[in-house]
Amino acid sequence: MISNLINKLKLLNVKIDVVDSKLDIKAPKGAIDALLLEDIKLHKEKLIDYINTYKAKKVSHFNIKAVPLQSSYPLSSAQKRLWLVSQIEDYSIAYNIPSYKILDGNYKIENLKKSCRCNDRKT
User: Fold this and answer.
1) How many domains does one find in the chain?
2) Burial category of 9 from C-beta neighbours within 10 Å (exposed 0-12, middle 13-18, buried 19 and up)
């Protein structure tokens, strides 16, 4: 039930937190109607418990440290498997499955050309 209420609040862009053991609610104007407010009041203690539990479990994220510049780097086991599969002739397209789509309609060709040029610059 609480997770449904929290999801509803998220959808309405309502921010809810616990400050000094009290609910702190920030919402866009008109986002909380009388029914929702009553639902929040009815489940106030459960909301506080849920938020406090979430905060206690929350782990801070760590940055991945850059390794020194090298001429090559060790491969992961997934990369090794991918390389091995690519060496088997019949399976060499296993990770490169070609496909096509026929475009029938009124398209602006210049926009398509721009998107291709943009993709070329990214590679």
Assistant:
1) 1
2) buried
